[in-house]
Protein backbone atom coordinates (compact mmCIF):
# COMPACT_ATOMS: atom_id res chain seq x y z
CA UNK A 1 0.00 0.00 0.00
CA UNK A 2 1.33 3.38 -1.02
CA UNK A 3 0.57 6.72 0.59
CA UNK A 4 -1.91 7.42 -2.22
CA UNK A 5 -3.77 4.18 -1.48
CA UNK A 6 -4.03 5.02 2.22
CA UNK A 7 -5.30 8.52 1.41
CA UNK A 8 -8.04 7.09 -0.83
CA UNK A 9 -9.09 4.47 1.73
CA UNK A 10 -9.10 6.96 4.63
CA UNK A 11 -10.78 9.73 2.65
CA UNK A 12 -13.67 7.62 1.41
CA UNK A 13 -14.25 6.14 4.86
CA UNK A 14 -14.27 9.57 6.49
CA UNK A 15 -16.86 10.61 3.89
CA UNK A 16 -19.03 7.58 4.67
CA UNK A 17 -18.92 7.94 8.44
CA UNK A 18 -19.40 11.72 8.30
CA UNK A 19 -22.49 11.31 6.14
CA UNK A 20 -23.82 8.51 8.36
CA UNK A 21 -23.47 10.60 11.52
CA UNK A 22 -25.23 13.54 9.87
CA UNK A 23 -28.15 11.28 8.81
CA UNK A 24 -28.32 9.52 12.19
CA UNK A 25 -29.13 12.82 13.90
CA UNK A 26 -32.40 12.94 11.94
CA UNK A 27 -33.82 9.74 13.48
CA UNK A 28 -36.17 10.65 16.32
CA UNK A 29 -38.92 7.99 16.51
CA UNK A 30 -39.15 4.23 16.80
CA UNK A 31 -40.94 3.95 13.45
CA UNK A 32 -38.07 5.78 11.75
CA UNK A 33 -35.55 3.49 13.44
CA UNK A 34 -37.31 0.17 12.73
CA UNK A 35 -38.97 0.79 9.33
CA UNK A 36 -37.57 4.11 8.08
CA UNK A 37 -40.91 5.84 8.65
CA UNK A 38 -42.31 3.63 5.84
CA UNK A 39 -41.37 6.37 3.39
CA UNK A 40 -38.42 4.98 1.41
CA UNK A 41 -38.57 5.04 -2.44
CA UNK A 42 -37.75 1.92 -4.41
CA UNK A 43 -34.27 3.00 -5.54
CA UNK A 44 -33.10 3.63 -1.97
CA UNK A 45 -34.47 0.25 -0.86
CA UNK A 46 -32.95 -1.50 -3.88
CA UNK A 47 -29.49 -0.03 -3.34
CA UNK A 48 -29.68 -0.71 0.40
CA UNK A 49 -30.66 -4.36 -0.12
CA UNK A 50 -27.84 -4.74 -2.63
CA UNK A 51 -25.30 -3.13 -0.31
CA UNK A 52 -26.26 -5.36 2.61
CA UNK A 53 -26.05 -8.50 0.47
CA UNK A 54 -22.57 -7.81 -0.93
CA UNK A 55 -20.00 -8.23 1.80
CA UNK A 56 -16.25 -8.56 2.05
CA UNK A 57 -16.50 -12.18 3.08
CA UNK A 58 -18.38 -12.95 -0.10
CA UNK A 59 -15.64 -11.50 -2.32
CA UNK A 60 -13.02 -13.66 -0.64
CA UNK A 61 -14.94 -16.90 -0.14
CA UNK A 62 -16.86 -17.06 -3.44
CA UNK A 63 -13.75 -16.36 -5.50
CA UNK A 64 -11.99 -19.15 -3.63
CA UNK A 65 -14.78 -21.49 -4.73
CA UNK A 66 -14.74 -20.37 -8.37
CA UNK A 67 -10.97 -20.80 -8.44
CA UNK A 68 -11.34 -24.38 -7.22
CA UNK A 69 -14.58 -25.56 -8.84
CA UNK A 70 -15.45 -23.15 -11.66
CA UNK A 71 -18.38 -20.79 -12.07
CA UNK A 72 -21.38 -23.11 -11.59
CA UNK A 73 -21.83 -21.56 -8.16
CA UNK A 74 -22.04 -18.10 -9.79
CA UNK A 75 -24.80 -19.26 -12.14
CA UNK A 76 -26.78 -20.50 -9.15
CA UNK A 77 -26.19 -17.36 -7.12
CA UNK A 78 -27.21 -15.09 -9.99
CA UNK A 79 -30.41 -16.98 -10.72
CA UNK A 80 -31.12 -17.37 -7.01
CA UNK A 81 -30.81 -13.62 -6.48
CA UNK A 82 -33.56 -12.75 -8.93
CA UNK A 83 -35.82 -15.67 -7.97
CA UNK A 84 -35.39 -14.93 -4.26
CA UNK A 85 -36.16 -11.25 -4.80
CA UNK A 86 -39.34 -12.12 -6.71
CA UNK A 87 -40.57 -14.75 -4.24
CA UNK A 88 -40.03 -12.47 -1.27
CA UNK A 89 -41.33 -9.17 -2.67
CA UNK A 90 -44.28 -10.54 -4.66
CA UNK A 91 -45.60 -13.32 -2.42
CA UNK A 92 -44.22 -13.06 1.11
CA UNK A 93 -43.23 -9.59 2.32
CA UNK A 94 -46.33 -7.71 0.98
CA UNK A 95 -48.66 -9.66 3.27
CA UNK A 96 -46.53 -8.82 6.29
CA UNK A 97 -46.25 -5.19 5.15
CA UNK A 98 -50.02 -4.84 4.82
CA UNK A 99 -50.39 -6.33 8.29
CA UNK A 100 -48.17 -3.57 9.70
CA UNK A 101 -45.42 -5.92 10.90
CA UNK A 102 -42.15 -4.41 12.08
CA UNK A 103 -40.25 -7.73 11.82
CA UNK A 104 -40.72 -10.83 9.69
CA UNK A 105 -40.99 -13.05 12.78
CA UNK A 106 -44.28 -11.43 13.86
CA UNK A 107 -45.99 -13.36 11.07
CA UNK A 108 -44.87 -16.71 12.49
CA UNK A 109 -46.65 -16.06 15.79
CA UNK A 110 -49.88 -15.36 13.91
CA UNK A 111 -49.57 -18.54 11.85
CA UNK A 112 -47.91 -21.03 14.20
CA UNK A 113 -47.82 -19.53 17.69
CA UNK A 114 -45.35 -17.66 19.97
CA UNK A 115 -42.73 -20.43 20.06
CA UNK A 116 -42.25 -20.27 16.28
CA UNK A 117 -41.55 -16.56 16.57
CA UNK A 118 -38.92 -17.09 19.24
CA UNK A 119 -37.21 -19.91 17.31
CA UNK A 120 -37.07 -17.75 14.18
CA UNK A 121 -35.36 -14.96 16.11
CA UNK A 122 -32.77 -17.36 17.53
CA UNK A 123 -32.08 -18.95 14.12
CA UNK A 124 -31.68 -15.56 12.46
CA UNK A 125 -29.40 -14.31 15.21
CA UNK A 126 -27.19 -17.37 14.80
CA UNK A 127 -27.30 -17.24 11.00
CA UNK A 128 -26.60 -13.56 10.42
CA UNK A 129 -24.03 -13.05 13.18
CA UNK A 130 -21.99 -15.86 11.66
CA UNK A 131 -21.85 -13.78 8.47
CA UNK A 132 -20.24 -10.92 10.40
CA UNK A 133 -17.64 -13.43 11.55
CA UNK A 134 -16.83 -14.43 7.96
CA UNK A 135 -16.53 -10.77 6.97
CA UNK A 136 -14.12 -10.16 9.84
CA UNK A 137 -11.92 -13.10 8.81
CA UNK A 138 -11.99 -11.98 5.16
CA UNK A 139 -11.02 -8.41 6.00
CA UNK A 140 -8.20 -9.59 8.25
CA UNK A 141 -6.95 -11.84 5.44
CA UNK A 142 -6.98 -8.98 2.93
CA UNK A 143 -5.36 -6.51 5.32
CA UNK A 144 -2.50 -8.89 6.11
CA UNK A 145 -1.98 -10.38 2.63
CA UNK A 146 -2.75 -7.43 0.34
CA UNK A 147 -1.87 -4.48 2.59
CA UNK A 148 0.98 -6.12 4.53
CA UNK A 149 -0.39 -5.12 7.94
CA UNK A 150 0.73 -7.13 10.98
CA UNK A 151 -1.96 -9.57 12.08
CA UNK A 152 -2.60 -7.84 15.42
CA UNK A 153 -3.05 -4.43 13.82
CA UNK A 154 -5.30 -5.94 11.17
CA UNK A 155 -7.62 -7.35 13.85
CA UNK A 156 -7.64 -4.03 15.69
CA UNK A 157 -8.66 -2.26 12.48
CA UNK A 158 -11.37 -4.81 11.67
CA UNK A 159 -12.91 -4.68 15.15
CA UNK A 160 -12.69 -0.89 15.23
CA UNK A 161 -14.38 -0.60 11.83
CA UNK A 162 -17.16 -2.98 12.87
CA UNK A 163 -17.89 -1.17 16.14
CA UNK A 164 -17.78 2.28 14.53
CA UNK A 165 -20.27 1.08 11.96
CA UNK A 166 -22.48 -0.46 14.64
CA UNK A 167 -22.41 2.86 16.53
CA UNK A 168 -23.98 4.92 13.74
CA UNK A 169 -26.41 2.09 12.87
CA UNK A 170 -27.46 1.98 16.53
CA UNK A 171 -28.00 5.73 16.53
CA UNK A 172 -29.92 6.10 13.28
CA UNK A 173 -31.56 2.73 12.54
CA UNK A 174 -33.02 1.86 9.14
CA UNK A 175 -33.51 5.48 8.09
CA UNK A 176 -29.76 6.09 8.38
CA UNK A 177 -28.65 2.64 7.18
CA UNK A 178 -30.66 2.88 3.95
CA UNK A 179 -29.41 6.38 3.14
CA UNK A 180 -25.77 5.49 3.85
CA UNK A 181 -26.06 2.34 1.74
CA UNK A 182 -26.67 4.50 -1.33
CA UNK A 183 -23.21 6.04 -0.91
CA UNK A 184 -21.64 2.70 0.01
CA UNK A 185 -23.13 1.07 -3.11
CA UNK A 186 -21.41 3.60 -5.36
CA UNK A 187 -18.02 2.93 -3.74
CA UNK A 188 -18.56 -0.85 -3.83
CA UNK A 189 -19.51 -0.96 -7.50
CA UNK A 190 -16.60 1.28 -8.48
CA UNK A 191 -14.07 -0.92 -6.70
CA UNK A 192 -15.61 -4.11 -8.08
CA UNK A 193 -15.55 -2.91 -11.69
CA UNK A 194 -12.00 -1.56 -11.42
CA UNK A 195 -10.66 -4.94 -10.35
CA UNK A 196 -12.67 -6.85 -12.94
CA UNK A 197 -11.58 -4.59 -15.81
CA UNK A 198 -7.90 -4.83 -14.81
CA UNK A 199 -8.12 -8.63 -14.61
CA UNK A 200 -10.07 -8.79 -17.88
CA UNK A 201 -7.28 -6.95 -19.64
CA UNK A 202 -4.62 -9.09 -17.95
CA UNK A 203 -6.08 -12.39 -19.21
CA UNK A 204 -6.51 -11.10 -22.77
CA UNK A 205 -10.11 -9.90 -22.87
CA UNK A 206 -12.86 -11.98 -24.44
CA UNK A 207 -10.46 -14.40 -26.11
CA UNK A 208 -8.68 -15.04 -22.84
CA UNK A 209 -11.95 -15.67 -21.03
CA UNK A 210 -13.10 -18.10 -23.74
CA UNK A 211 -9.83 -19.99 -23.40
CA UNK A 212 -10.12 -20.24 -19.61
CA UNK A 213 -13.73 -21.40 -19.78
CA UNK A 214 -13.42 -23.93 -22.58
CA UNK A 215 -9.80 -25.08 -22.42
CA UNK A 216 -9.01 -25.49 -18.72
CA UNK A 217 -5.64 -26.67 -17.49
CA UNK A 218 -5.36 -30.43 -17.13
CA UNK A 219 -4.88 -30.29 -13.36
CA UNK A 220 -7.90 -28.06 -12.67
CA UNK A 221 -11.65 -28.56 -12.58
CA UNK A 222 -13.34 -27.13 -15.69
CA UNK A 223 -14.23 -23.48 -15.22
CA UNK A 224 -17.36 -23.54 -17.39
CA UNK A 225 -20.60 -23.68 -15.38
CA UNK A 226 -22.17 -26.57 -17.27
CA UNK A 227 -19.16 -28.88 -17.13
CA UNK A 228 -19.41 -31.61 -14.45
CA UNK A 229 -16.42 -32.10 -12.16
CA UNK A 230 -15.27 -34.90 -9.94
CA UNK A 231 -15.34 -32.72 -6.82
CA UNK A 232 -19.07 -32.02 -6.55
CA UNK A 233 -22.31 -33.38 -7.95
CA UNK A 234 -23.67 -32.28 -11.31
CA UNK A 235 -23.61 -28.49 -11.88
CA UNK A 236 -27.42 -28.48 -12.05
CA UNK A 237 -27.39 -29.55 -8.40
CA UNK A 238 -25.03 -26.68 -7.61
CA UNK A 239 -27.36 -24.20 -9.34
CA UNK A 240 -30.48 -25.56 -7.60
CA UNK A 241 -28.74 -25.54 -4.23
CA UNK A 242 -27.68 -21.92 -4.66
CA UNK A 243 -31.20 -20.92 -5.74
CA UNK A 244 -32.48 -22.53 -2.55
CA UNK A 245 -30.05 -20.71 -0.26
CA UNK A 246 -30.43 -17.29 -1.87
CA UNK A 247 -34.23 -17.57 -1.85
CA UNK A 248 -33.97 -18.32 1.85
CA UNK A 249 -31.75 -15.28 2.24
CA UNK A 250 -34.55 -13.04 0.94
CA UNK A 251 -37.47 -14.79 2.66
CA UNK A 252 -36.27 -15.63 6.18
CA UNK A 253 -33.61 -12.96 6.69
CA UNK A 254 -34.86 -9.80 8.40
CA UNK A 255 -31.78 -7.88 7.26
CA UNK A 256 -33.56 -7.81 3.88
CA UNK A 257 -37.24 -7.80 4.87
CA UNK A 258 -36.51 -4.87 7.20
CA UNK A 259 -35.62 -2.82 4.11
CA UNK A 260 -38.78 -3.91 2.30
CA UNK A 261 -40.94 -2.96 5.30
CA UNK A 262 -39.60 0.59 5.04
CA UNK A 263 -41.04 1.35 1.59
CA UNK A 264 -43.68 3.97 0.87
CA UNK A 265 -45.82 1.56 -1.24
CA UNK A 266 -46.17 -2.08 -2.28
CA UNK A 267 -45.01 -1.11 -5.79
CA UNK A 268 -41.80 0.34 -4.32
CA UNK A 269 -41.26 -2.92 -2.43
CA UNK A 270 -41.46 -5.02 -5.58
CA UNK A 271 -39.40 -2.68 -7.75
CA UNK A 272 -36.81 -2.17 -5.02
CA UNK A 273 -36.38 -5.91 -4.55
CA UNK A 274 -36.13 -6.44 -8.32
CA UNK A 275 -33.49 -3.72 -8.52
CA UNK A 276 -31.54 -5.36 -5.71
CA UNK A 277 -31.86 -8.81 -7.30
CA UNK A 278 -30.49 -7.50 -10.58
CA UNK A 279 -27.62 -5.67 -8.91
CA UNK A 280 -26.78 -8.69 -6.76
CA UNK A 281 -26.71 -10.88 -9.88
CA UNK A 282 -24.35 -8.42 -11.58
CA UNK A 283 -22.27 -8.30 -8.42
CA UNK A 284 -21.84 -12.06 -8.51
CA UNK A 285 -20.99 -11.91 -12.23
CA UNK A 286 -18.29 -9.25 -11.90
CA UNK A 287 -17.19 -9.87 -8.33
CA UNK A 288 -17.40 -13.66 -8.11
CA UNK A 289 -15.92 -14.87 -11.39
CA UNK A 290 -12.50 -13.40 -10.58
CA UNK A 291 -11.27 -16.66 -9.06
CA UNK A 292 -11.96 -18.66 -12.23
CA UNK A 293 -10.47 -15.99 -14.49
CA UNK A 294 -7.32 -15.80 -12.35
CA UNK A 295 -6.41 -19.48 -12.64
CA UNK A 296 -3.54 -19.05 -15.11
CA UNK A 297 -1.94 -15.95 -13.61
CA UNK A 298 1.74 -16.47 -12.82
CA UNK A 299 1.66 -14.81 -9.41
CA UNK A 300 -1.05 -17.14 -8.06
CA UNK A 301 0.48 -20.48 -7.03
CA UNK A 302 -1.37 -23.75 -7.31
CA UNK A 303 -3.53 -23.64 -4.19
CA UNK A 304 -4.64 -26.79 -2.43
CA UNK A 305 -8.14 -27.30 -1.06
CA UNK A 306 -8.49 -25.21 2.07
CA UNK A 307 -6.16 -22.48 0.78
CA UNK A 308 -8.31 -21.05 -1.98
CA UNK A 309 -9.58 -18.14 0.14
CA UNK A 310 -6.16 -16.57 -0.56
CA UNK A 311 -6.97 -15.96 -4.25
CA UNK A 312 -8.70 -12.60 -3.78
CA UNK A 313 -5.99 -11.04 -1.56
CA UNK A 314 -3.32 -12.23 -4.02
CA UNK A 315 -5.18 -10.56 -6.87
CA UNK A 316 -5.30 -7.26 -5.00
CA UNK A 317 -1.65 -7.32 -4.05
CA UNK A 318 -0.18 -8.34 -7.41
CA UNK A 319 -2.57 -6.96 -10.01
CA UNK A 320 -3.42 -3.39 -9.01
CA UNK A 321 -1.33 -0.26 -9.47
CA UNK A 322 -1.06 2.40 -6.72
CA UNK A 323 -4.29 4.33 -6.44
CA UNK A 324 -6.36 1.53 -7.94
CA UNK A 325 -5.47 -0.72 -5.00
CA UNK A 326 -6.74 1.93 -2.57
CA UNK A 327 -9.96 2.30 -4.55
CA UNK A 328 -10.65 -1.46 -4.57
CA UNK A 329 -9.79 -1.80 -0.87
CA UNK A 330 -12.19 1.08 -0.17
CA UNK A 331 -14.85 -0.81 -2.11
CA UNK A 332 -14.20 -3.94 -0.05
CA UNK A 333 -14.50 -1.94 3.17
CA UNK A 334 -17.71 -0.33 1.90
CA UNK A 335 -19.18 -3.79 1.26
CA UNK A 336 -18.24 -4.86 4.77
CA UNK A 337 -19.55 -1.68 6.40
CA UNK A 338 -22.92 -2.03 4.67
CA UNK A 339 -23.30 -5.58 5.94
CA UNK A 340 -22.13 -4.77 9.48
CA UNK A 341 -24.76 -2.03 9.73
CA UNK A 342 -27.53 -3.97 8.01
CA UNK A 343 -27.14 -7.10 10.11
CA UNK A 344 -26.56 -5.18 13.33
CA UNK A 345 -29.70 -3.06 12.97
CA UNK A 346 -31.91 -5.91 11.75
CA UNK A 347 -30.88 -8.38 14.44
CA UNK A 348 -31.22 -5.71 17.14
CA UNK A 349 -34.75 -5.05 15.91
CA UNK A 350 -35.57 -8.76 16.22
CA UNK A 351 -34.06 -8.96 19.69
CA UNK A 352 -35.95 -5.94 20.99
CA UNK A 353 -39.38 -6.38 19.42
CA UNK A 354 -39.61 -10.18 19.37
CA UNK A 355 -37.78 -11.17 22.55
CA UNK A 356 -37.32 -8.23 24.90
CA UNK A 357 -40.57 -6.36 24.26
CA UNK A 358 -42.74 -9.42 23.55
CA UNK A 359 -41.44 -11.76 26.26
CA UNK A 360 -39.72 -9.70 28.96
CA UNK A 361 -40.77 -6.03 29.25
CA UNK A 362 -44.09 -5.40 27.52
CA UNK A 363 -45.26 -1.98 28.66
CA UNK A 364 -42.20 0.26 28.57
CA UNK A 365 -41.98 3.54 26.68
CA UNK A 366 -40.83 3.93 23.08
CA UNK A 367 -37.75 5.74 24.38
CA UNK A 368 -36.86 2.74 26.53
CA UNK A 369 -37.15 0.29 23.63
CA UNK A 370 -35.02 2.54 21.43
CA UNK A 371 -32.27 2.55 24.07
CA UNK A 372 -32.40 -1.24 24.30
CA UNK A 373 -32.27 -1.59 20.51
CA UNK A 374 -29.29 0.72 20.20
CA UNK A 375 -27.40 -1.16 22.88
CA UNK A 376 -28.33 -4.47 21.24
CA UNK A 377 -26.92 -3.30 17.91
CA UNK A 378 -23.50 -2.78 19.44
CA UNK A 379 -23.66 -6.01 21.43
CA UNK A 380 -24.71 -8.17 18.47
CA UNK A 381 -21.89 -6.94 16.25
CA UNK A 382 -19.33 -7.42 19.02
CA UNK A 383 -20.53 -10.92 19.95
CA UNK A 384 -20.37 -11.94 16.28
CA UNK A 385 -16.59 -12.11 16.61
CA UNK A 386 -17.02 -15.25 18.73
CA UNK A 387 -17.44 -17.12 15.41
CA UNK A 388 -13.95 -16.19 14.26
CA UNK A 389 -12.16 -19.24 15.80
CA UNK A 390 -14.72 -21.60 14.23
CA UNK A 391 -14.29 -20.01 10.81
CA UNK A 392 -10.50 -20.14 11.03
CA UNK A 393 -10.71 -23.87 11.77
CA UNK A 394 -13.05 -24.59 8.83
CA UNK A 395 -11.74 -25.85 5.49
CA UNK A 396 -12.97 -22.70 3.74
CA UNK A 397 -15.44 -19.97 4.62
CA UNK A 398 -17.98 -21.35 2.16
CA UNK A 399 -17.84 -24.77 3.84
CA UNK A 400 -18.47 -23.10 7.20
CA UNK A 401 -21.35 -21.04 5.83
CA UNK A 402 -23.04 -24.00 4.16
CA UNK A 403 -22.74 -26.12 7.28
CA UNK A 404 -24.42 -23.38 9.31
CA UNK A 405 -27.21 -22.45 6.90
CA UNK A 406 -28.26 -25.95 5.85
CA UNK A 407 -28.96 -26.88 9.47
CA UNK A 408 -31.59 -24.27 10.43
CA UNK A 409 -32.01 -21.54 7.81
CA UNK A 410 -33.32 -23.68 4.96
CA UNK A 411 -35.92 -25.43 7.16
CA UNK A 412 -36.99 -22.01 8.47
CA UNK A 413 -37.54 -20.76 4.93
CA UNK A 414 -39.78 -23.77 4.23
CA UNK A 415 -41.76 -22.99 7.41
CA UNK A 416 -42.42 -19.46 6.15
CA UNK A 417 -43.49 -20.52 2.66
CA UNK A 418 -45.67 -23.50 3.61
CA UNK A 419 -47.28 -21.51 6.39
CA UNK A 420 -48.23 -18.70 4.09
CA UNK A 421 -49.50 -20.69 1.12
CA UNK A 422 -50.74 -24.05 2.45
CA UNK A 423 -53.02 -25.19 5.26
CA UNK A 424 -50.36 -27.17 7.14
CA UNK A 425 -51.12 -27.83 10.81
CA UNK A 426 -50.04 -25.17 13.32
CA UNK A 427 -47.72 -27.66 15.02
CA UNK A 428 -46.19 -29.07 11.84
CA UNK A 429 -43.41 -26.47 11.87
CA UNK A 430 -41.85 -28.09 14.95
CA UNK A 431 -41.54 -31.50 13.29
CA UNK A 432 -40.33 -29.98 10.02
CA UNK A 433 -37.67 -27.80 11.64
CA UNK A 434 -36.47 -30.68 13.80
CA UNK A 435 -36.20 -33.10 10.87
CA UNK A 436 -34.38 -30.60 8.67
CA UNK A 437 -32.01 -29.69 11.48
CA UNK A 438 -31.24 -33.33 12.29
CA UNK A 439 -30.20 -33.93 8.68
CA UNK A 440 -28.01 -30.81 8.74
CA UNK A 441 -26.30 -31.83 11.98
CA UNK A 442 -25.66 -35.39 10.73
CA UNK A 443 -24.17 -34.03 7.52
CA UNK A 444 -22.03 -31.52 9.40
CA UNK A 445 -20.67 -34.07 11.87
CA UNK A 446 -20.44 -37.25 9.79
CA UNK A 447 -20.61 -36.03 6.18
CA UNK A 448 -17.37 -37.78 5.23
CA UNK A 449 -19.02 -41.11 6.05
CA UNK A 450 -22.11 -40.49 3.90
CA UNK A 451 -22.40 -41.07 0.14
CA UNK A 452 -21.69 -38.01 -2.01
CA UNK A 453 -25.27 -37.70 -3.25
CA UNK A 454 -26.42 -37.24 0.36
CA UNK A 455 -23.53 -35.23 1.80
CA UNK A 456 -22.58 -32.91 -1.09
CA UNK A 457 -22.48 -29.35 0.24
CA UNK A 458 -24.73 -28.01 -2.52
CA UNK A 459 -27.19 -30.90 -2.46
CA UNK A 460 -27.46 -30.33 1.31
CA UNK A 461 -29.82 -27.41 0.72
CA UNK A 462 -32.11 -29.51 -1.45
CA UNK A 463 -32.17 -32.36 1.06
CA UNK A 464 -32.79 -29.98 3.94
CA UNK A 465 -35.69 -28.28 2.14
CA UNK A 466 -37.16 -31.55 0.87
CA UNK A 467 -37.03 -33.27 4.26
CA UNK A 468 -38.68 -30.28 5.96
CA UNK A 469 -41.47 -30.12 3.37
CA UNK A 470 -42.14 -33.86 3.55
CA UNK A 471 -42.28 -33.97 7.35
CA UNK A 472 -44.57 -30.92 7.57
CA UNK A 473 -46.95 -32.42 5.02
CA UNK A 474 -46.97 -35.85 6.69
CA UNK A 475 -47.49 -34.27 10.12
CA UNK A 476 -50.42 -32.25 8.78
CA UNK A 477 -51.94 -35.35 7.16
CA UNK A 478 -51.79 -37.12 10.54
CA UNK A 479 -52.81 -34.23 12.83
CA UNK A 480 -55.20 -32.57 10.42
CA UNK A 481 -55.03 -29.61 8.09
CA UNK A 482 -56.08 -26.14 9.14
CA UNK A 483 -59.69 -25.51 8.20
CA UNK A 484 -58.83 -22.33 6.30
CA UNK A 485 -55.76 -20.36 5.32
CA UNK A 486 -54.71 -17.93 8.04
CA UNK A 487 -55.50 -14.37 7.00
CA UNK A 488 -53.35 -11.59 8.36
CA UNK A 489 -54.86 -8.38 9.61
CA UNK A 490 -54.69 -5.72 6.94
CA UNK A 491 -54.08 -2.01 7.31
CA UNK A 492 -54.58 0.62 4.67
CA UNK A 493 -51.38 1.04 2.68
CA UNK A 494 -50.34 2.83 -0.47
CA UNK A 495 -50.28 0.29 -3.28
CA UNK A 496 -48.52 2.49 -5.82
CA UNK A 497 -47.17 6.05 -6.15
CA UNK A 498 -48.97 6.16 -9.52
CA UNK A 499 -52.43 5.85 -7.97
CA UNK A 500 -54.90 3.32 -9.35
CA UNK A 501 -53.23 2.92 -12.73
CA UNK A 502 -49.61 1.81 -13.04
CA UNK A 503 -48.14 2.54 -16.50
CA UNK A 504 -47.19 -0.51 -18.54
CA UNK A 505 -43.48 0.41 -18.45
CA UNK A 506 -43.61 0.41 -14.62
CA UNK A 507 -45.36 -2.94 -14.13
CA UNK A 508 -43.25 -5.02 -11.68
CA UNK A 509 -44.39 -8.25 -13.33
CA UNK A 510 -42.93 -7.18 -16.68
CA UNK A 511 -39.63 -6.22 -15.06
CA UNK A 512 -39.55 -9.53 -13.18
CA UNK A 513 -39.92 -11.55 -16.39
CA UNK A 514 -37.29 -9.42 -18.14
CA UNK A 515 -34.87 -9.84 -15.25
CA UNK A 516 -35.19 -13.63 -15.11
CA UNK A 517 -34.89 -13.84 -18.89
CA UNK A 518 -31.77 -11.68 -18.95
CA UNK A 519 -30.01 -13.68 -16.26
CA UNK A 520 -30.89 -16.98 -17.94
CA UNK A 521 -29.49 -15.70 -21.23
CA UNK A 522 -26.19 -14.76 -19.58
CA UNK A 523 -25.96 -18.15 -17.89
CA UNK A 524 -26.87 -20.21 -20.97
CA UNK A 525 -25.06 -18.21 -23.66
CA UNK A 526 -21.92 -17.16 -21.78
CA UNK A 527 -21.36 -19.26 -18.69
CA UNK A 528 -22.82 -22.69 -19.40
Kindly describe this structure.
It is a single chain. The protein has 528 residues and is mainly α. The protein is 74% helix and 0% strand. The chain has 22 helices and no strands. Helix 4 packs across helix 7 (114-145). The chain starts with a helix and ends with a helix. The model has no long low-confidence stretch (mean pLDDT 86).
Helix content: over 70%
Q: Mean pLDDT across all residues, rounded?
A: 86
Gyration radius (Cα, Å) is: 22 Å
- Tell me about the biggest sheet? none
- Measured between the Cα atoms of the first and last residue, the distance is 38 Å
Number of strands: 0
- Coarse shape: globular
- Taken as a percent bin, the fraction of beta residues is under 5%
SS content category: mainly alpha
Number of helices, counting only DSSP H or I runs of 4 residues or more = 22
Q: Write the H/E string, N to C.
A: HHHHHHHHHHHHHHHHHHHHHH
User: Low-confidence spans: pLDDT under 50, at least 5 residues?
Assistant: none
